[in-house]
Amino acid sequence: MNIGLIIGSLREQSYNMKLASHITQAFSDVTFERISIGELPFFNEDLETNGDPQAVQQFKTAVERMDGLIILTPEYNGSIPGVLKNALDWGSRPVTNSVFHNKQVGIIGATPGGMGTAFAQIHLRQVLEAMRADVLPHEKLHVSRVHELCAVAEQPNTFRYVDRYVQQFIQFIQNTKGVHV
Length: 181
Prior knowledge:
By secondary structure, this protein is α/β, with parallel strands linked by helices. The protein is built from 7 helices and 6 strands; from the N terminus they run βαβααβαβαββαα. Strands 1, 2, 3, 4, 5 and 6 form a 6-stranded parallel β-sheet that branches.
């Protein structure tokens, strides 16, 4: 099974990146691949008219070949980061052939704050559902005070909620594979 990881932050030492690193190490029976969004140009229909730029083509190809995606995102001003929204806008085009259509997607969000990306995840779920992605239903993972969690990363069970969420997402992919026509 191949699962893409899209990180909604470009910061090299982002907490969401640290959670993604944990995931790739914790699940040896699954291949995880980080799908970069930092090189994507701002979405512009004029660019699209002339054919997708190379970075966009690479992004879409990477998303397309994954069995599922986990998006790990911080919360910026009560919503999703612009760089993540830009990537989703590119991936949703053309509407008739979106690489996100019927793609299984899980959402994880981490922040040093106390709300744990609750608002960002609501907005992200709304965007993904408009794109007709299959978002893992009924499950949420809002990691608040993530800096404290990362400070004790070596201790057993530190990331147990992350691990449980990823297990549920893997099961979701297995249960829905081939369901869509």
